[in-house]
Amino acid sequence: MRYNEKELQALSRQPAELAAELGMRGPKKGSVVKRRLVKLVVNFLFYFRTDEAEPVGALLLERCRVAREEPSGFSISFIEDPERKYYFECCSEEQCQEWTEALRRASYEFMRRSLIFYRKEIQKMTGKDPLEQFGISEEARFQLSSLKA
Amino acid sequence: MKLNERSLAFYATCDAPVDNAGFLHKKGGRHAAYHRRWFVLRGNMLFYFEEPASREPVGVIILEGCTVELVEAAEEFAFAVRFAGARARTYVLAAESQAAMERWVKALSRASFDYLRLVVRELEQQLAAVRAGACPPPPPWYGQEIRALRAQWLSSRAQP
Question: Has keyword Phosphoprotein (chain B) (predicted)?
Answer without folding.
Answer: yes
